Amino acid sequence: MKDSEVISTLNDLIETCKDGEKGFKTCAEDIADNQYRQPFLTLATSCSAAAQELTGLVVARGGDPETRSSLSGTLHRRWVDIKSAIMGKDDEAILNECERGEDVAKKSYANALEKDLPVDVRAVVERQYQGVLKNHDIVKTMRDRARVAAM
């Protein structure tokens, strides 16, 4: 795989991480139940750290790292804000949208892992993918708790 293709793949993942960071921060701001606020902020921090690690790999290969989140991530956050306003910031709805965002992250990482990445890059991407799966499970557990509490 050419360095330019590796850089492009890494930059796509950087966008995904930045989307996750901003998405988790948005959910932390919108969620009514305070018990979920800190976990969202912790997840946002882990996304930021993942983006920084990927940025280092891009720079090491002579590339320019992505500095912004994606348009689709921005649109998703706006949709969460609008839905929250309409639904009265329903925690379950916010958690559902957060889980949907993590589904997108899972797909982005799975797509990257289908490529013929250099060994050092693959190791980082695989490790971060495990983190994405963990984040998804954390959000799903919070969503399930909110659903039970709402009954």
From TrEMBL:
Lineage top rank: taxon: Bacteria
All residue ranges annotated as the DUF2383 domain in the record: 5-115
Xref: InterPro entries: CHP02284 (IPR011971), DUF2383 (IPR019052), Ferritin-like (IPR012347), UCP029477 (IPR016920)
A Pfam short name: DUF2383
Signal peptide (from-to): none
Gene3D superfamilies: 1.20.1260.10
Protein name as annotated: DUF2383 domain-containing protein
Organism: Oxalicibacterium solurbis
